[in-house]
């Protein structure tokens, strides 16, 4: 809100002369405060307080309706921005982030320098934030919200944790209130109390949270995005704005990625170009390869087409300061020896064509026919995106059971209801009305009985009896009767499922 109203540099210039700002949402049929700025905290307002009471305390209070979707989008954008420090970024509720910086701190001059860099950059972006580095996620969470340390050594964990309120342990509100009611208001009070008594009175979750904050219990983080196996990055002293310069640098990054891939005997399937703008906005551009690639020129060509497709959405602004090329998905490819015929691999031109079209128009622009393991006609085949040229280049044996000869040329995705006259209980149709036209059957063949897939549709799903029929004018149709007369239903329904010509 402050960035929108007062600009991104409002922290540098100082807070304008403006009343306290709070966000309110409807909770239990009452408008309550869910977020507030430092000035509102200074005048004594708290989260969960009624909005009417807060307005009575400060008549000039600026109350804004909470927008969870906008908050989530902003937090996601901030998590993308934090990729400059580590790829292991996890969301912490609606107002925090966890960064696993194991093995990354030395790249930024140490832990203290990393914290200072994060806070100074966020300050210039107009974002008020607190950051803490410790050996456990629980301790960092507690100190960032209730303490004032920046870097905590493992041996100082209990000393820093002891004076904090019990709310710093991320306990349910009911447990926190019960602890305060019995006089256990600080974490240090819990550290001195017998563990067995705490477990009997407040449950095992209290001890778990306490041990996690002290670093005695592991608390694994779940990164919001998978960590790529290979990546190459450039941090620029002069931001880039022109598309040609971005593509040239992407080609150099492609060459670095190629060396990593060759070293591990793999080739990339999915490539991602991360562009971090000077003002903190992050763009992710992905390109999928139809065949595994480790050629720098072909990788760069993928992004040339992709950048042209997203040109209108890629606003360079004042320029990009960080470019990173990563490989989220790769495949191990065994080396093969080419023959001496001089005939190029037929899949290469097709792969280049597919890569160009999919990069320009999206991965779903090219599809190919596929077979599925199902005996129901509408489920036995379909179309899938062409993500692998080998899927259509390699000859495969045809399963005669999956492709019967008596199937029509055109099968409808959804069978259409018809009105038919037939002999009971299992006779072929004599006439039927389809799409407001009456047809009289001259010849019929069947039935072909197909049972339902009970593991998908349920055991009560009706059976189908299919008939191949020909009308008096020679037109051939494929109809089925749904439900066995007298056993599954007393009034079976007829459907048109396909035409032969």
UniProtKB/TrEMBL annotation:
Domain UmuC: 19-141
The keyword Phosphoprotein is annotated on this UniProt entry: no
Domain DNA polymerase Y-family little finger: 229-311
Cofactor(s) demanded: Mg(2+)
Domain DUF6504: 422-497
Catalysis performed (reactions): DNA(n) + a 2'-deoxyribonucleoside 5'-triphosphate = DNA(n+1) + diphosphate
The protein's enzyme class: transferase
EC number, as in UniProt: 2.7.7.7
Function: Poorly processive, error-prone DNA polymerase involved in untargeted mutagenesis. Copies undamaged DNA at stalled replication forks, which arise in vivo from mismatched or misaligned primer ends. These misaligned primers can be extended by PolIV. Exhibits no 3'-5' exonuclease (proofreading) activity. May be involved in translesional synthesis, in conjunction with the beta clamp from PolIII.
Protein name according to UniProt: DNA-directed DNA polymerase
């Amino acid at each position: 809100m402050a960035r929108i109203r007062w600009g991104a540099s409002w922290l540098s210039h100082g807070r304008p002369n403006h009343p306290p700002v709070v966000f309110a949402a409807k909770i239990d049929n009452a408008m309550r405060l869910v977020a507030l700025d430092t000035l509102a905290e200074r005048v004594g307002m708290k989260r969960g307080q009624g909005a009417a009471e807060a307005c009575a305390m400060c008549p000039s209070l600026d109350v804004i309706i909470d927008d969870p979707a906008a908050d989530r989008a902003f937090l996601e954008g901030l998590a993308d921005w934090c990729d400059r420090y580590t790829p292991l970024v996890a969301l912490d509720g609606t107002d925090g982030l966890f960064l696993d910086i194991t093995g990354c701190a030395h790249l930024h001059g140490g832990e203290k320098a990393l914290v200072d860099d994060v806070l100074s950059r966020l300050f210039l972006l107009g974002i008020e934030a607190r950051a803490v580095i410790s050996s456990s996620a629980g301790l960092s969470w507690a100190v960032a919200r209730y303490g004032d340390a920046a870097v905590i050594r493992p041996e100082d964990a209990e000393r820093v944790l002891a004076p904090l309120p019990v709310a710093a342990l991320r306990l349910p509100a009911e447990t926190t209130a019960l602890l305060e009611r019995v006089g256990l208001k600080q974490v240090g009070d819990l550290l001195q109390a017998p563990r067995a008594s705490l477990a009997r009175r407040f449950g095992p979750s209290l001890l778990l949270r306490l041990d996690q904050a002290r670093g005695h219990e592991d608390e694994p983080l779940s990164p919001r995005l998978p960590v790529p196996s290979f990546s190459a990055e450039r941090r620029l002293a002069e931001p880039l704005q022109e598309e040609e310069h971005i593509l040239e640098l992407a080609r150099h990054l492609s060459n670095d990625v190629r060396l990593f891939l060759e070293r591990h005997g793999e080739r990339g399937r999915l490539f991602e170009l991360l562009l971090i703008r000077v003002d903190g906005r992050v763009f992710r551009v992905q390109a999928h390869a139809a065949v595994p690639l480790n050629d720098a020129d072909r990788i760069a060509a993928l992004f040339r087409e992709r950048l042209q497709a997203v040109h209108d959405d890629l606003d360079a602004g004042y320029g990009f300061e960080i470019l990173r090329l990563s490989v989220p998905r790769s495949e191990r490819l065994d080396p093969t020896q080419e023959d001496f015929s001089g005939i190029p691999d037929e899949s290469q031109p097709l792969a280049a064509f597919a890569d160009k079209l999919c990069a320009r128009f999206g991965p779903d622009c090219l599809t190919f026919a596929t077979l599925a393991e199902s005996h129901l006609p509408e489920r036995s085949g379909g179309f899938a995106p062409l993500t692998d040229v080998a899927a259509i280049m390699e000859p495969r044996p045809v399963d005669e059971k999956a492709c019967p000869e008596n199937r029509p040329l055109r099968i409808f995705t959804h069978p259409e209801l018809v009105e038919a006259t037939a002999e009971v209980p299992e006779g072929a149709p004599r006439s039927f009305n389809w799409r407001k036209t009456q047809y009289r059957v001259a010849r019929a063949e069947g039935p072909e009985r197909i049972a339902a897939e009970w593991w998908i549709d349920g055991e009560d799903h009706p059976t189908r009896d299919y008939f191949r029929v020909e009308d008096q004018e020679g037109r051939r149709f494929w109809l089925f009767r749904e439900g066995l007369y007298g056993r599954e239903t007393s009034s079976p329904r007829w459907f048109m499922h396909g035409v032969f010509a």
